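Write out the bound-state structure for cytidine-5'-diphosphate.
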Amino acid sequence: MSAFTVAIDGPAAAGKGTISRAVAEHFGFAHLDTGLLYRAVGAKGGDPVAVARALTPQDLARDDLRSLGAGEAASRVAAISEVRAALVDFQRDFARREGGAVLDGRDIGTVICPGAEVKLFITASPEVRARRRWLETGGDTGAESFEAVLEQVRTRDARDMGRAEAPLRPADDAVTLDTSEMSIAQAVERAMAVIAARLGRGG
Ligand code: CDP
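---
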């Protein structure tokens, strides 16, 4: 199969990662979690533009990139246009590889891959997303209160949607899935149906 790009965008903890991994596995596509690029730049410290231009596979393999702190640092460096520019080619090359690719992030359907064969915008209410993230961090037995996580979700949403460079928004031709009232299984099923329909039309 030739190149086939699935762009999956949406706010923090909407379910993009889980849906992306599931559809990549199902259709045999490669998967790139583009948030990891920004997390790695934010986590490394120093001059974010220089770090983004010289990002290495080891930087992406750090085991602390999923922390709330790394997410916060990521959303700060992600507002810098030179940082975003430094990461474009890597993402586009990944997207056009033979055999299909799924990329999830904030600007895949709008900026990185405006010609993607499938564009999904995965969202859910801030409360539902904060609850998911809070449970991931350990819930009642974890270090974070639900209120603190909700506050971080709202801050990050505002920063990601309000920035001048590649703000988070659905592409005009994206299919939006609001997963507030869906189980993960239901959301994955809906996403797969959209992709299968597009592949069926000659991919
Ligand atoms: O997993 P979660 O949705 O919380 O975060 P992520 O996808 O790892 O992204 C972390 C931060 O990186 C986001 O809040 C964005 O500010 C930034 N990001 C971006 O600007 N563009 C992307 N394509 C991916 C992430």
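---
The chain has one domain: 5-199.
DSSP finds eleven helices and five strands in the chain.
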